Automatic annotation (TrEMBL):
Top-rank taxon, per record: Bacteria
Residues that bear 4-aspartylphosphate: D55
Example GO molecular function: sequence-specific DNA binding
Protein name: Two-component system, response regulator YesN
Length: 548
């Protein structure tokens, strides 16, 4: 609702304007009066008005004088001039002061409301422009960081195209020569712990707080801009820009900013960080090389020596690649053990490796990442081959370790070791439960297959491949349920069928041998003798004599 001030020394005119104005229809919420120019000016200075109707001829402070003052002090105030004099001087001042309209006394309803409507239309237009401007600024302020992030990511991924992004180069200081660019990384080692304890499980809020700390006090000649690595929510990518500076100064300020951020994050939120800085370059496109160096330095930080926040950079050399002991070669054994339900044995194999890593010269964050990924993939492959994969294991692929109730945090080697053991425990438990529910059905399926296909060349590998069970474990299960091994059961079924077929004198021994899956009559006869202590012919003769 708008506020209007009538400034006129004639009370009847003020009253007439009150009566004639369509205030409600125009959206005017309040209409006040001033009996002279001086009083009107005081009121304008004390309160906020949108429109003033000013009489040109008043004592103490004339309308012309008031218009001149209002033009300087209240540039947003709209003015309508009222005068009983058709005087050029008044008209000229009204034109100078850009009044909305000029009314002559006596004021009539039509002219008054027409002038008021013109003023309100201008106020509405201003309001729309202001709203659009605010909206544009909000959108711009929200979109500029995302645009910068997108540009930096394309540079780091080496997919940035100069020509299509030329208009946006000033956003990242890439439009002028002499600027220095440095890339850095900051990994949040205890992200889940702090997210739950300090940020009410709100990842976005936590990332917002962290980026604010990294970017703090940047501006002017030195700027820090950071954002979450889209491939790893634990990592924050930071780009440091020094305008018209020297490479050494830029490197120094970047390192200082990253170390300060790591210390502040620990102090404010209890966040433990490992960070690294790449080399400084005068070409913004070389930020990709700077990032690669920072990533290599971050991966090379020794987990065995990690005690608190640490930032690697400057002249820190990257260690040569070391071939750390891999679990891959032992996974078939671990799989067999998990299938047998012996999780403790599987953990002993895992602990054998963790002890070897701990006793080695170094075990870096990169080694830890590779080992964790490797174990997740290998255990996932085992679980994926089971007929009934538990929902928790299926969710790990998309939801990560949280699907198993594991945080993924580790700030020391002992915590990393605990995470690996927790991961193995989670999979072992799910695999054991899955196999327990499915085991009986598997054995019944195998027995039914043998009963119906005894005449085929049956190999145990057929069942180990189909049901993803080790040979030893399957043999143990089958014998425990049926009292004999799979080969022995195949032999039993064949011999039972042979005895039934030999009762038919029309069938030759050679025919029976082939019907049972034996290609060699002599081999069948030998197998029959071993089983019944007589040859097929003797068994048939004895049966026929018994019938007589």
């Amino acid at each position: 609702m708008y506020r209007v001030l009538i400034i006129d020394d004639e009370e009847p005119l003020r009253e007439a304007i009150h009566i004639l104005g369509d205030w409600k229809g125009l959206g005017v919420g309040e209409v006040l009066e001033a009996s002279d120019g001086k009083t009107g000016l005081d009121m304008l200075r004390r309160e906020k008005f949108d429109l003033a109707l000013v009489d040109m001829k008043m004592p103490e402070l004339s309308g012309s004088q008031l218009l001149q003052i209002a033009e300087k002090e209240f540039p947003e105030l709209l003015l309508i001039v009222i005068s009983g004099y058709n005087d050029f001087e008044y008209t000229r001042q009204a034109i100078r002061s850009k009044v909305v309209d000029y009314l002559l006394k006596p004021v009539n309803r039509g002219d008054l409301n027409s002038a008021l409507r013109k003023a309100v239309d201008l106020l509405e237009a201003r309001k729309r422009e202001r709203s659009e401007f605010i909206a544009q600024n909000i959108t711009l302020n929200m979109s500029v960081p995302k645009l910068k992030e997108k540009m930096y990511l394309s540079i780091l991924e080496r997919s940035f195209k100069n020509q299509s992004n030329e208009a946006f180069l000033p956003l990242i200081g890439a439009d002028t020569t002499g600027n220095q660019f440095t890339a850095g990384l900051l990994r949040l080692l205890n992200l889940e712990q702090v997210r739950k304890g300090r940020f009410h499980e709100d990842r976005d809020l936590m990332h917002f707080a962290v980026t604010n700390v990294i970017n703090e006090n940047s501006g002017g000649a030195f700027e820090a801009f950071s954002f979450v690595n889209p491939k790893n929510e634990r990592e924050l990518i930071a780009v440091f820009t020094m305008k018209k500076g020297y490479e050494e100064d830029a490197a120094f300020h970047s390192m200082h900013q990253l170390k300060k951020a790591a210390a502040t994050l620990k102090e404010l939120f209890g966040i433990l960080c490992a960070g690294a800085l790449g080399a400084t370059y005068g070409d913004y496109l070389e930020l990709a090389d700077s990032y690669d160096t920072a990533k290599a330095r971050l991966d090379d930080i020794d987990l065995l020596q990690l005690k608190g926040p640490v930032v690697s950079g400057g002249g820190t050399p990257v260690q040569e690649f070391r071939d750390s002991p891999s679990l891959t070669g032992r996974m078939p054994q671990i799989r067999s053990i998990l299938e047998s339900g012996n999780a403790a044995h599987a953990k002993s194999i895992l602990n054998e490796f963790t002890q070897r890593w701990q006793s080695s010269a170094r075990f870096s964050l990169g080694d830890a990442d590779r080992t964790l990924r490797e174990l997740l993939i290998l255990l996932g492959d085992i679980a994926g081959e089971l007929e009934e994969v538990p929902a928790a294991l299926r969710a790990v692929k998309n939801k990560g370790l949280a699907a198993l109730g594991l945080s993924g945090d580790y700030t020391s080697f002992s915590q990393f070791e605990g995470l690996l053991n927790g991961l193995l425990d989670a999979y072992a438990g799910e695999i054991s439960r899955s196999l327990a529910g499915n085991r009986s059905g598997v054995l019944e399926n195998i027995k039914a297959y043998i009963d119906n296909h005894y005449f085929e060349n049956i190999k145990i590998s057929m069942f180990t491949d189909k049901y993803f069970l080790s040979r030893e474990y399957l043999m143990k299960l089958f014998k425990g349920k049926y009292g004999c091994g799979i080969h022995e059961y195949v032999q039993k079924v064949r011999m039972d069928k042979a005895r039934d077929l030999l009762a038919d004198p029309a069938l030759k021994v050679q025919d029976i041998s082939e019907m049972l899956g034996y290609k060699d009559k002599n081999y069948f006869s030998k197998a029959f003798r071993n089983y019944y202590d007589c040859s097929p012919s003797e068994f048939r003769t004895g049966n026929l004599e018994g019938e007589k």
